[in-house]
Write a structure and sequence with these properties.
Length: 125
């Protein structure tokens, strides 16, 4: 056990490039660059792909948030996005905010996450 732990701790952190999803007949690897955004689906997460397809991950949004590279950020209790895909931020009625992705998709931004998202977008420009 100690040897295994030492091996894992000694490994260089390798950036995650794919997510594994169960399919009938096995496991499929979904490249992160094909993921438009990730939406919570109860205890699972739905990967919405750029081509319009969806894949169901057995991991929760919380677990994925911990695993994904830092360019994936939580914008709402139900959504994870790559901040690099943001086209603009919209201020809506009633102090609500939405994010528009480069593909035209609009997603809500939680009130507690607006300030951090704006700072991240300003720093990334």
């Amino acid at each position: 056990m100690a040897k295994a732990l030492a091996r894992v701790q000694g490994r260089a952190a390798v950036p995650l490039r794919t997510l594994a999803v169960r399919k009938s007949g096995g496991i499929a690897l979904v490249p992160l660059e094909t993921v438009a955004y990730i939406q919570g689906a109860g205890d699972y997460a739905e990967l919405v792909l750029r081509d319009g397809r969806t894949e169901l991950s057995e991991k929760s949004l919380e677990r994925l948030e911990a695993l994904l590279p830092p360019d994936f950020v939580r914008i709402h209790r139900s959504y994870l996005i790559s901040w690099r895909d943001v086209a603009c931020l919209w201020s809506l009625e009633g102090s609500r905010t939405a994010v528009e992705l480069k593909d035209g998709t609009r997603l809500p931004v939680g009130r507690s996450r607006v300030k951090a998202l704006k700072a991240l977008l300003d720093a990334g420009e």
